Amino acid sequence: METVLITGASSGIGVALADCFAADGARLVLVARRNERLQVVADDLRRKFGVEVHVCAVDLADPAGVRELCQALEQRHLNVDVLVNNAGFGILGPFQESDRQLQLKMVALNVAALTDLTHRLLPPMLARRRGGILNVSSVAAYPPGPWMAVYYATKAYVQSFSDALWYELKATGIQVTTLSPGPVKTEFASRSGVGSLGLLDRNAMSAPRVAQAGYRAYRAGRRTTTPGWGNWAGTILSRCLPRALIAPLVGRIQMRKRTGPNRKPD
Ligand SMILES: NC(=O)c1ccc[n+]([C@@H]2O[C@H](COP(=O)([O-])OP(=O)(O)OC[C@H]3O[C@@H](n4cnc5c(N)ncnc54)[C@H](OP(=O)(O)O)[C@@H]3O)[C@@H](O)[C@H]2O)c1
Description:
Strand content: 5-15%
Number of domains: 1
Bound molecules: NADP nicotinamide-adenine-dinucleotide phosphate
Helix content: 40-55%
Mean pLDDT: 94
């Protein structure tokens, strides 16, 4: 039986991805900080699909949290076949006015924890010559993102790292896929200090639809997927236009999303 570890599985895209893998009969390991929320998701999956679900409540922005998670996997004799690096958050607002600790926490979660977990869980996959990694990136991976500068940079890292790893592991039987969504209706916007997305709100996709696209791309052995034609076209445009042109365009969109002061730490 396939064992799938999903980070950020207490809400949004993570919950929807857990549904996709559970429908396939996989054993799941759900990871996030809010234990009660994880338990609710786990009970729901057990009831709906009759699958085995483990829960591990840790703060992945803390390297000790990643170590704790890996120790828990060892203690429970769980060999992870599929690692889904989904946990992440963003911060909207002028960089110089933002909370430094929170920006660093975002880098720790979106970049360091994803790298650390991949580095720890990949060797056993390689030894078994089986498994894969599904990393949740974003359309934000492609252009620079004024007023959300660090978040966009973290997603550029996720995309570049995953694409490189996809090539490195091509001949090993280990699949690497990135899911790069545009706006999705989850807790992400409110937690990032994003108010109404205006036009983008109307185009925002549901978490199940985005998760299905990512799941199908992973199963089909694809390198990357950007659900929605508009989002996909946006990534092409971001890569074709000079950065001096795309930065003001993206900056204008970000400014419109801003409704209040910078987000404060959880
Ligand atoms: N929503 C969008 O518009 C959108 C667009 C493109 C890409 N994405 C990406 O999609 C991914 C999932 O986001 P979402 O939209 O589903 O947002 P969400 O509903 O806010 O979910 C974020 C998940 O990450 C977990 N998390 C946050 N901080 C954590 C920490 N320190 N340690 C462990 N887990 C942590 C949260 O759980 P706890 O709070 O319980 O820890 C939650 O389960 C993110 O990587 C995001 O960048 C989102």
